[in-house]
């Protein structure tokens, strides 16, 4: 079995006069990331490997989660579409992997990777810091495919405040 933790970056600061890739989190985003990290720890959803977009807001989201796991930053997840995200996942090695990326790709990927979506009213719009936990009945990530994961859990930060 393989477990995927799919996290959209926390709320970013649109008031910062920076190019998109360099945009940091705003105050709400800096509050949300630790809430998601606490939820992951509380439920025992701890990754052995993290693959994160190299954008400032995804890096800051990962730091805010407070998760002690090896992380690799890649430009491949920056505004990636679902097929590109799947290819990144297929290169993972840990039994439990967290991917941290951006919408619209991360939400589209979440919707396509699970056989049935979780019964949550916010799943289909995948708001900032939304987090899906999904499991695959596979031995290697390279065998992961759309429609083959089982949704185990889903949360948005507002539920944790």
UniProtKB/TrEMBL annotation:
This is Histidine phosphatase family protein. It comes from Rhodosalinus sediminis. It comes from the Bacteria. The lineage of its organism: Bacteria, Pseudomonadati, Pseudomonadota, Alphaproteobacteria, Rhodobacterales. InterPro entries: His_Pase_superF_clade-1, His_PPase_superfam. SMART domains: PGAM. Pfam families: His_Phos_1.
